[in-house]
């Protein structure tokens, strides 16, 4: 299962858009919940006038049997105090559906990094203990950086370290609950700022592709992804028409 967190810059959701559009995934249903702000809109992945008027809502499920991949796309923010009920419902569905692994695409505020996090790549990963046993060695081979824990009381004590994902929305809760429930979950995230976050989405989805090899890697890593038609309305259409 691949899904976004509703986090800073909506980077995870934009990256999920690229996956669904590029792999031409089939919509198979909805994730019905009262934890998200209700919304409805036209088909964000329309390819012709005939399918442009299909309706989309706040949480939809897509799949690609050939890759054993299910994607949950979330398109609206959470209602206040509804993080935990959503987390419980989602992880219950994950277990009931017998999903082997869950990958969450997320982001975190770049301006709230500590000194260690300022070094090197802006990309980080987290693995639950159950998944660490299976793929931890591969992450080492890829030379990926694990999300650092930071001081719980900066300037007072540097010995107590905690996981801190500012701007990450439900990310930390999903991860810690998956650790306690024995669910194999990975979190892939990018430090970023609010603005035109399309470049961040490309970086994050390429990061995902390094591991899962969803598409064949190319020298120009942006050209391997198909831009959804709905992106024409983003950020004053900041992408050249040739990309659509």
UniProtKB/TrEMBL annotation:
Forms a heterodimer with PSMG1. The PSMG1-PSMG2 heterodimer interacts directly with the PSMA5 and PSMA7 proteasome alpha subunits. The keyword Transmembrane does not apply. GO terms for biological process: proteasome assembly. The gene is Psmg2. Its main location: nucleus. This is Proteasome assembly chaperone 2. It is found in: Nucleus. Keywords: Chaperone, Nucleus, Phosphoprotein. Gene3D superfamilies: PAC-like subunit. GO terms for cellular component: cytosol; nucleus. Chaperone protein which promotes assembly of the 20S proteasome as part of a heterodimer with PSMG1. The PSMG1-PSMG2 heterodimer binds to the PSMA5 and PSMA7 proteasome subunits, promotes assembly of the proteasome alpha subunits into the heteroheptameric alpha ring and prevents alpha ring dimerization. Pfam families: PAC2 (PF09754). InterPro entries: Proteasome_assmbl_chaperone_2, Proteasome_assmbl_chp_2_euk, PSMG2_sf. Belongs to the PSMG2 family.
